[in-house]
Amino acid sequence: MARFCFFLLTLLLSKFSFAQLNKAGWQSFMVDQNMVWDSLSTKWEEGVPLGNGLLGVMIYRESANSIRFDLGRTDVVDHREGINPSLGRCRLPIGKFLLNSSSPITHIKLELHLLGAELTGTITTEKGSIRLRAIAAKSVEAMLFATQTSTDGLFNWEWKPEPSKSPFATLRDSAGTYQPNPPGRDSVSGDLHFYIQPLLVGGNYTTAWKQLKAEDEQLLAVTIANSYPDGHSQNLAVRPLLQLTQNSIKNIWTEHKKISEETATRSFISIPDARLQSFWYTQQYKLNAATGRNNYPIDLMGPWYRITPWPKYWWNLNIQLTYYPVFSSNQIDLAIPLLNMVTTHLDNLANNAPEQYRHNAAALGRSGPYEMTGGIKVVKGNDSTGNNSGSASLELGNLTWLLHVCWQAYEYTRDPRIMQQLFPVLKRSIQYYLNIMEKESDGKFHLPYTYSPEYPKGVTRDANYDLSLLRWGCKTLLFINGQLNLKDNTAEQWSTVLRDLTPYPQDEYGLKIGRDASFTLSHRHYSHLLMIYPLHEINWEQPENQKLIRTSLEQWENNNSAWRGYSYSGAASIYATMGNGNKSLQLLNDMFDKGRFAIKPNTMYLEAGPVIETPLSAVTSINEMLLQSWGDIIRVFPAVPDTWKDASFDKLLAQGGFEVSAVRKNGQTSFIRIKSKAGAPCRIRTGWNGKIRTKGARAFHIETKNGITAIDLKKGEEVTIFTGSTPEDLTVKPVATYGRKNYWGLHSN
Question: pLDDT tens, 312-321?
Fold first, then answer.
């Protein structure tokens, strides 16, 4: 299947309007968002993350005299078949560089500039100081570490490779099932140094570096190349290093900062909470550091390698939560690798289904490699006997949930090419359900035993996880842009399912896990609530469903002993759809502060290993407090906490291809600016009671009914709306904040 090479997104990726915040204004504003370290610990989760979408480095303390630079590359994986993918198809360690001081380090002051994606600072030792600048370059596959010293001989660089062994094997007893890869070897060619790591089944990866002088600085340039199955990684590693000369370094650095500034300024928010505000900008930085248009999707750790029991992709929640924030944040090009992964592996997705369904179905198991292999074993009449132990193979909803994420790229752009690419994958995913459902004596279609992800007793018939995704899939396939899709030969079946599918199982505690499983045990996932969020099929704007939503949410929230970070952000998002911004803010603060599963100083998140989706999911919650756009209605400031009397945002993205900007002053929305990129119908809930006025290039027709305003906005047009007199200032500016600036990083006090 064709890749999304056409997906240039010039439709949406216009640069930030400097009428709102000029270059100097951006620089002044972002200084307060930067991450700052006035000390370094020996913990990965307290280090400095740099990344260019493929290569990554985490910088933290090794010892009293050394700083370590842990290297990573997203696609450095093993390629063995026939064993557990956590062993055979896992991420692999690479190694680290040590900056070894000749005397103890007495002080550290580092700053990660989020606007230009550059680290600067000073390392002070007993014998002198080392000034450091570092980037993971966006214009060339290399990481550059520039140093300046007060005196000669203060430090040296030391390369230390890591054994090429699955981290899963390091953490778990896998004797007899896993053999480490062969040892690596050193090589030197002129001023280029190589460490070539062969793989047991073919291919290799190479770490390469060289040192050179550039103006008054010494430079260490490092790259990592990967090659499978041919093993040409050393040749690939030479190419970026040859681009690095004394004359080119300055231009590469300049181009890197230019690219980074463009991605950092695609959207803007300003809220009174300094900690939450800087957290939002740090996650935008991390997203662009972790992936990019021509790179790989983000797994659980991104390019920042750390030992973990989860060294691969996880399909039953993690990747979904990782990618939701890119859409409303106006960073849709970051979803291109995810779309490419899904659409280029349809054959594997088909083969993941049982043999009798492969001709028309597709599926995806709990976890696996980039190639999306991972079998599902649900068949018509599936029996629950003995299936609790093999529950991963019963998670039937994973592919459909992942496709809901991918479909957002279409919803937020209305680019028909995206829909055309995703449609056949979604059709196959839903067809699997059609193959196995049966009509019972009640006249309703029912599903056999499947598994609701990670619920302790989650093998059940009519799992709400599956029922909600099946409904969403049928409705999406049947209604494109609100128009009936009756030409497809399966349209009648989709329509029949929507009419005759069994209702969601529920009891006195609200929505159940499924027909055979009440929600009575604490559970970190909210898979049984997907119809409420993020699918919005059952929502707070339906008075008849408010009691069910509240009961179900309270039952989940009151049994929270098993909650983890994303449980808090998920609950925050649900409360945001209910208009309860105070509760959303409380939950996000709990997520930041609650015990050993709190967000870490560098905004990473750990359970037994890195789980990158959790902090990223909080961005989705913050965006939803400021802007929501489900159900073809744009909602501005729908869940703002009482403490946010002032707030502003610029060029957040809404479904339908709308860039939306708005300003809130003294507890009231001052104005809203909307630009249509796709020409979709514009319907907006403003919260205003008075007559709405417009300002734009022409006289716009507006009509308000039941609190929803329709505007005849055509593709490419922009309109500013307000009520009462024209606001004196129609620009989006930062608001005053409370709390510590430069909150994130590591502070000694």
Answer: 999 999 999 9
- C-alpha atoms less than 13 angstroms from C-alpha of 269 in its C-beta half-sphere: 30
The 8-class DSSP code of residue 160 comes to E
Q: What's the Rg (C-alpha) of the chain?
A: 26
Q: How many CB atoms lie within 10 A of CB 439?
A: 12
Residues 619-644 have pLDDT tens digits of 999 999 999 999 999 999 999 999 99
Q: Report CA torsion sign: 21, 11, 634, 640.
A: negative
- The neighbouring-strand residues paired with 223 are 208
Is the pTM value of this prediction over 0.70? yes
152: exposed, middle or buried (Cβ count in 10 Å: 0-12, 13-18, 19+): exposed
What length does the chain have?
Answer: 749
CB neighbourhood size of 24 (10 A): 9
Contacts of 239 by beta carbon, 8 Å cutoff, 6+ apart: none
Above 60 in pLDDT, residue 491?
yes
The range of the structural domain enclosing residue 78 comes to: 34-265
Quick one: 249 and 312 in the same domain? no
> Across 546-614, where does the E strand assignment appear?
none
Helix, coil or strand: residue 375: coil
**Are 330 and 660 spatial neighbours (Cβ–Cβ below 8 Å)?**
no
Alpha helix positions (H), 369-456: 398-411, 416-436
> Does residue 278 share a domain with residue 176?
no
Strands 682-685 vs 708-711: parallel, antiparallel or unpaired = antiparallel
Cβ atoms of 45 and 601 within 8 Å: the answer is: yes
Query: Quick check: is 440 in a domain?
Result: yes
A 10 A CB-CB count for 241 gives: 23
Residues 279 and 623: beta-carbon distance below 8 Å = no
Question: In the listed set 265, 295, 315, which residue is the last one of a domain according to the structure?
Answer: 265
Assign residue 343 the CATH number of its domain. 1.50.10.10
Nearest one of 109, 152, 104, 150 to 130, comparing CA atoms: 150
